[in-house]
UniProtKB/TrEMBL annotation:
One of its GO terms (cellular component) is chitin-based extracellular matrix. The keyword Endoplasmic reticulum does not apply. It holds the Pfam family Chitin_bind_4. PROSITE patterns: CHIT_BIND_RR_1, CHIT_BIND_RR_2. Residues 115-156 are annotated as: Disordered. Residues 128-156 have a biased composition (Low complexity). Residues 1-17 form the signal peptide. GO terms for molecular function: structural constituent of chitin-based larval cuticle. Keywords: Cuticle, Signal. PANTHER family: CUTICLE PROTEIN, CUTICULAR PROTEIN 65AU, ISOFORM A-RELATED. It comes from Stomoxys calcitrans. The keyword Signal applies. Transmembrane segments: none annotated. This is Pupal cuticle protein Edg-78E.
Length: 156
């Protein structure tokens, strides 16, 4: 176990030393009068970046680097009116859409909402309800019935 610890510390120290002494191999920074630009660089320790675009409007680019575990991370991206859209194998992915939601979306797709038809049906139901209320509120003719006496009291 002690040997494993010593070897791990030595490897980490070597990795730090490699990053400490990393040098820039190439560097380009080109800015045009129309606002477009292009820049790129890469270093001896595997870090690289490039981007091009028009300032304030859009940009596309990519970058790469190595994790402390030695895994290569590569990222490509676009930034425009739809926002920042990164892509890379290391990025998390959303969970799958539940089956019930997929069925609901399919039902909605196959049964589109027609606003005019809905308004027509709603208007028809309102007219029926209004007619029923008017019929209830109309005065009813008085129907005279003779009171019948039952016992000592008259019932009305």
């Amino acid at each position: 176990m002690f040997r494993f610890f010593v070897v791990s510390v030595a490897i980490c120290g070597l990795a730090l030393a490699v990053d400490y002494q990393a040098e820039t191999r190439s560097f380009v920074n080109d800015i045009q009068e129309d606002g477009s630009y292009n820049y790129q660089f890469d270093t001896t320790n595997g870090i690289a970046q490039q981007e091009s675009g028009v300032g304030g409007h859009y940009a596309t680019g990519s970058s790469q680097y190595y994790t402390p575990e030695g895994e290569l991370i590569q990222l490509t991206y676009t930034a425009d009116e739809n926002g920042f859209q990164p892509q890379g194998a290391h990025l998390p992915t959303p969970p799958p859409i539940p089956e019930a939601i997929l069925k609901s979306l399919e039902y909605i797709r196959t049964h589109p909402y027609h606003e005019e038809e809905e308004q027509r049906q709603h208007h028809h139901h309102e007219q029926q309800a209004s007619t029923a209320r008017q019929q209830q509120l109309q005065p009813q003719p008085f129907q005279h019935q003779q009171a019948q006496q039952q016992g000592p009291y008259r019932r009305f």
